[in-house]
Amino acid sequence: MKKILNRIGILVLLSGLMACEKPVIDTKPSHKKGYEVRFHIGDIAQKYANGKARAVVGVGEVCSCINAAVYNHGTKVTGINQKKGEEGFGNLKVNLPEGEYSLVIVAHSGMKNASTAHADKISFSGKITDTFLYNGTFTVTEDMQLGVTLRRCVAKVEFNFDKAIPEKVTHLRFNYTGGSSSLDAIQGFGCVNSRQTEVLNVPEEAHRGPSSYGIFTFPKAQEGTLKVKLTALDASNNVVAEHTFNDVRIVMNGINRINGLYFTKPSEPEARGINIKVDDSWATIFDSNL
Length: 290
Known about the structure:
Immunoglobulin-like, eight-stranded mixed β-sheet, six-stranded mixed β-sheet, 8% helix, elongated
């Protein structure tokens, strides 16, 4: 009888302990939607030469549009588009599962967003503007923040008229080949053979004094050349004058200034001692003659 009572006592004690035991609850946060990853575009690297200007500036000082995309094994996972004036311009946020990714960010001043479906062929609608690029990889294992710096990925040619442009010339059309209107963001160079066209209005002040006009392209290598046909047009799009520039040298992140342009009496633009130079506020400086 005593043994039976002892066994009953043990069973009662065990039942009490089990009743008092609290269930274990997993308090770790759920990541069904992935971890939060934030990117901050801290600076735009302009590589100003000779220390005459800041090497980096804020993205809002030089660009009005940001297009970013995250890729996993070459496939686009998500994208973010921002316009200057929006709250948080230059700060990007995505949610991603654990894994390895690549990130492409292009900042420019185009009217429309760039197409980022494929990292090796970023396409732009409309004219090419001063454009900056970031391309890098990152690994997600937790919530994280990354700071990135973008670098210029275009070449610029600037046409400088040192005399007034005739009143009847209302706009200038630039047709040029040798560059690219699409960007391979992985390699950092242009990736197609393009025929680009840029039409720029001639402001009123240009009829009274010097004026400058710039065109951009993505070089397909560190250096290259353009063939540029410059056409002066009137308000009815009639041709007033034309001039073709052959073998215009371009350099990645270089600005080439064609100086000494003017219109002769028959309204034909001529080059008077044309020099192509790189503005010292860009990365490369060189001299050459057409």
